[in-house]
Amino acid sequence: MYIEMGDPRAYPKYPLIGVGTCLLKDDKILIIQRGNEPDKGLWSIPGGMVGYGERTDIAAMREVEEETGLKVLEMDYVADIVDKIIYDEAGRLLYHFIIVDYVSTKFEGNASPSDDAVDLIWCPFKNLPNYEYPDTIVELFKKIHIWPDSE
Questions:
Q1: Which of these, 37, 17, 21, lies nearest to 134 by C-alpha position?
Q2: Nearest C-alpha neighbor of 44 from the set 142, 146, 141
Q3: Cα(94)–Cα(37) distance, integer angstroms
Q4: What's the pLDDT tens digit per position in 8-30?
Q5: CA distance readout (Å), 137 to 7, 22, 43, 91
Q6: Which of 80, 51, 77, 46 is nearest to 63 (CA)?
Q7: Quick check: 59 and 86 in contact, CB under 8 A?
Q8: pLDDT digits (tens, 9 = 90+) for 68-111
Q9: Burial of 5 (0-12, 13-18, 19+ CB in 10 A)
Q10: Are 112 and 33 in contact (CB under 8 A)?
Q11: What is residue 75's predicted lDDT score, i.e. its pLDDT?
């Protein structure tokens, strides 16, 4: 894994709070291809960091808009709270995120990739295994019962 010089999220003193959003419509989910570490090049859901003084649901809505151009009108529910802990080759703690993942079916606009998203697609649930994801995303898809073998 390549770490960009000066990545303020690398080697944290405390866990950092992140958010993600599963945008669902017509048996499809919007997945994005990540443009930055961690998990650069892998497919995921729109998300990012919570700002100081920002509520997690508002941060999730902001991140969706920044990465996809979609405006989330309402979050349906919290799907999961994930511990994402990554160590470097020397065994030192490289990243530590606590991520609050939401589900939303209430949004508007046309999706196009921007910010950290290199690409995005509306993926039918049955085609989800055709893409490469971080393990935490596969587990999330299973928890919300959209992974093909999780029904």
A1: 37
A2: 141
A3: 11
A4: 889 999 999 999 999 999 999 99
A5: 22, 10, 9, 23
A6: 46
A7: no
A8: 999 999 999 999 999 999 999 999 999 999 999 999 999 999 99
A9: exposed
A10: no
A11: 98
Residue type, 148: P
The rounded distance, in Å, linking the Cα atoms of 81 and 99 is 6
Give me the pLDDT at residue 5, please: 56
C-alpha span between 133 and 52 (Å, rounded): 28
Token duo for residue 75? 């979050």
Range 16-150 classified under CATH 3.90.79.10: yes
Q: Which two tokens stand for residue 145?
A: 């019962």
d(CA 96, CA 94): 7
Domain boundaries, the chain: 16-150
Instruction: Provide the token pair at 130.
Output: 């055709």
For range 115-137, the mean pLDDT: 94
pLDDT surpassing 70 at residue 60: yes
Cβ–Cβ < 8 Å for 53, 77: no
